[in-house]
């Protein structure tokens, strides 16, 4: 039976419908008024004062010259790790052709999406790492053309390290544009962009909702909204380290949940006390304390099995396990975006560049999808090829199924093949 050392207050459904409504109006406005509406929202929401949204080659060169070498080296390390792992994942996708029966050849092929729009969040923190995660991965997947958008920080330009990261990750065009207006511009091809086939990247509640509503106009990677962390811990874990890791993610934004599921009541209480203590000195406590107050939870359970089932119900984006039984959890857990086994690793490693992708499912989307990877940019398609003998052999079966369904024109397409491929000497 689960017990709560701390439970999050119930969320107001009003807030969600307000986001939905705001985004719906903005998308309709942009679909009909295009560039004018995009520019208007950029001015209103991001204090845009620039002329061209598209960042010029000149600006990119200037930024690259001015950034310190140490940053470029750190960036190169992260990019190497993420793209190496992405390449291994891509190579794990197999094309094949199989002869399932005499003369029936069926095959699977992989074709990258042609044009992709990558969103790099930057409202609260300019996420440098998100450039590698989206653009770098799309490049590894073989995407033909990559448009990237990141919000202008000061109303004029993209945060220089993010701009550098976008260029170095392989973006073909970069625009200083944020939020809903960026998602819509990429989908519809506004302000000089080429309309993309798919939009990708994490973002706040407005960005995630814009993606959801644009689905159909374009394809999506996954629902990657406000960050979440869940930690499963037993009495062997260090309460101070757990508190640090929970707050480490709560700093993302006031809507970022942090949950602890533990088999130890004493540990649960110790973590609660630690969080309050650490919030007193945490530099970003202003945001993290709101997130913890409104979305933080500490759940005590009776067994490791119950910890697994509670965690699977929450289906967290990030899941850290700090228990004596790491292998048990690795084999039993089913719903999560990315798993961090043991206290030696932490979500920040995954966020910034240990190698696994940081764009991950939130809002319980981990029940049905994993995170961003090369495969999200690659279409698995199929083909078939039959000999005349095989075609004649299966034509009557296919024809009868058509007939049962009342699809008579379908049936004729099978019948004509049956006659067409009759043996010549018959
Ligand atoms: N799930 C993941 O994989 C993942 C990874 C990294 C970051 N994140 C999340 O990304 C988010 C980044 O959020 P952010 O806000 O810092 O940056 P953001 O770039 O996602 O959003 C900033 C934009 O929001 C728009 N906006 C702000 N207020 C608005 C309003 N009232 N109406 C309409 N539009 C509005 C503005 O246009 C602005 O450009 C965080 O919530 C973080 O948790 C998720
Ligand atoms: Zn994070």
From TrEMBL:
<comment type="similarity">
    <text>Belongs to the histidinol dehydrogenase family.</text>
</comment>
<feature type="binding site">
    <location>
        <position position="119"/>
    </location>
    <ligand>
        <name>NAD(+)</name>
    </ligand>
</feature>
<dbReference type="GO" id="GO:0000105">
    <property type="term" value="P:L-histidine biosynthetic process"/>
</dbReference>
<feature type="binding site">
    <location>
        <position position="204"/>
    </location>
    <ligand>
        <name>NAD(+)</name>
    </ligand>
</feature>
<feature type="binding site">
    <location>
        <position position="249"/>
    </location>
    <ligand>
        <name>substrate</name>
    </ligand>
</feature>
<dbReference type="GO" id="GO:0051287">
    <property type="term" value="F:NAD binding"/>
</dbReference>
<protein>
    <submittedName>
        <fullName>Histidinol dehydrogenase</fullName>
    </submittedName>
</protein>
<dbReference type="InterPro" id="IPR012131">
    <property type="entry name" value="Hstdl_DH"/>
</dbReference>
<keyword id="KW-0479">Metal-binding</keyword>
<feature type="binding site">
    <location>
        <position position="252"/>
    </location>
    <ligand>
        <name>Zn(2+)</name>
    </ligand>
</feature>
<keyword id="KW-0862">Zinc</keyword>
<feature type="binding site">
    <location>
        <position position="410"/>
    </location>
    <ligand>
        <name>substrate</name>
    </ligand>
</feature>
<feature type="active site" description="Proton acceptor">
    <location>
        <position position="318"/>
    </location>
</feature>
<dbReference type="InterPro" id="IPR022695">
    <property type="entry name" value="Histidinol_DH_monofunct"/>
</dbReference>
<keyword id="KW-0560">Oxidoreductase</keyword>
<keyword id="KW-0520">NAD</keyword>
<feature type="binding site">
    <location>
        <position position="318"/>
    </location>
    <ligand>
        <name>substrate</name>
    </ligand>
</feature>
<feature type="binding site">
    <location>
        <position position="351"/>
    </location>
    <ligand>
        <name>Zn(2+)</name>
    </ligand>
</feature>
<dbReference type="InterPro" id="IPR016161">
    <property type="entry name" value="Ald_DH/histidinol_DH"/>
</dbReference>
<feature type="binding site">
    <location>
        <position position="410"/>
    </location>
    <ligand>
        <name>Zn(2+)</name>
    </ligand>
</feature>
<dbReference type="GO" id="GO:0046872">
    <property type="term" value="F:metal ion binding"/>
</dbReference>
<dbReference type="Pfam" id="PF00815">
    <property type="entry name" value="Histidinol_dh"/>
</dbReference>
<feature type="binding site">
    <location>
        <position position="249"/>
    </location>
    <ligand>
        <name>Zn(2+)</name>
    </ligand>
</feature>
<feature type="binding site">
    <location>
        <position position="405"/>
    </location>
    <ligand>
        <name>substrate</name>
    </ligand>
</feature>
<feature type="binding site">
    <location>
        <position position="227"/>
    </location>
    <ligand>
        <name>substrate</name>
    </ligand>
</feature>
<feature type="binding site">
    <location>
        <position position="351"/>
    </location>
    <ligand>
        <name>substrate</name>
    </ligand>
</feature>
<dbReference type="GO" id="GO:0004399">
    <property type="term" value="F:histidinol dehydrogenase activity"/>
</dbReference>
<feature type="active site" description="Proton acceptor">
    <location>
        <position position="317"/>
    </location>
</feature>
<feature type="binding site">
    <location>
        <position position="252"/>
    </location>
    <ligand>
        <name>substrate</name>
    </ligand>
</feature>
<dbReference type="GO" id="GO:0005829">
    <property type="term" value="C:cytosol"/>
</dbReference>
<feature type="binding site">
    <location>
        <position position="181"/>
    </location>
    <ligand>
        <name>NAD(+)</name>
    </ligand>
</feature>
């Amino acid at each position: 039976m689960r017990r709560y050392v701390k439970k999050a207050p119930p969320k107001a459904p009003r807030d969600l419908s307000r986001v939905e409504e705001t985004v719906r109006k903005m998308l309709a406005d942009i679909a009909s008024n295009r560039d004018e509406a995009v520019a208007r929202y950029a001015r209103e929401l991001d204090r845009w004062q620039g002329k061209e949204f598209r960042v010029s080659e000149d600006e990119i060169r200037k930024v690259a010259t001015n950034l310190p070498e140490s940053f470029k080296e750190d960036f190169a390390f992260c990019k190497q790790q993420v793209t190496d792992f992405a390449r291994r994942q891509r190579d794990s996708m197999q094309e094949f052709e199989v002869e399932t029966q005499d003369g029936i050849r069926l095959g699977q092929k992989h074709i990258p999406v042609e044009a992709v729009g990558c969103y790099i969040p930057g409202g609260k923190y300019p996420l440098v790492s998100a450039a590698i995660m989206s653009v770098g991965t799309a490049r590894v997947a073989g995407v033909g053309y990559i448009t990237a958008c990141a919000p202008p920080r000061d109303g004029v330009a993209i945060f220089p390290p993010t701009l550098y990261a976008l260029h170095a990750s392989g973006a073909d065009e970069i625009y200083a544009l944020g939020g809903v207006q960026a998602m819509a511009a990429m989908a519809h091809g506004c302000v000089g962009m080429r309309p993309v086939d798919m939009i990708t990247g994490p973002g706040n509640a407005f960005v995630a909702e814009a993606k959801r509503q644009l689905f159909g106009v374009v394809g999506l990677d996954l629902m990657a909204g406000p960050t979440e962390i869940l930690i499963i811990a037993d009495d062997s874990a260090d309460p101070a380290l757990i508190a640090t890791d929970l707050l480490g993610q709560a700093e993302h934004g006031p809507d970022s949940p942090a949950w602890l599921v533990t088999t130890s009541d004493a540990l649960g209480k110790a973590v609660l006390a630690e969080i309050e203590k650490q919030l007193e000195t945490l530099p970003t406590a202003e945001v993290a304390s709101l997130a913890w107050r409104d979305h933080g939870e500490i759940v005590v359970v009776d067994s490791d099995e119950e910890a697994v089932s509670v965690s699977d119900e929450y289906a967290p984006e990030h899941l850290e396990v700090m228990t004596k039984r790491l292998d048990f959890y690795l084999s039993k857990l089913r719903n999560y975006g990315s798993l961090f086994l043991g206290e030696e690793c932490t979500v920040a490693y995954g966020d910034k560049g240990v190698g696994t992708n940081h764009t991950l499912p939130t809002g319980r989307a981990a029940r049905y999808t994993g995170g961003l990877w090369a495969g999200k940019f690659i279409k698995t398609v199929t083909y078939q090829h039959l000999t005349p003998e095989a075609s004649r052999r299966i034509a009557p079966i296919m024809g009868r199924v058509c007939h049962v369904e009342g699809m008579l024109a379908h049936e004729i397409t099978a019948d004509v093949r049956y006659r067409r491929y009759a043996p010549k000497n018959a």
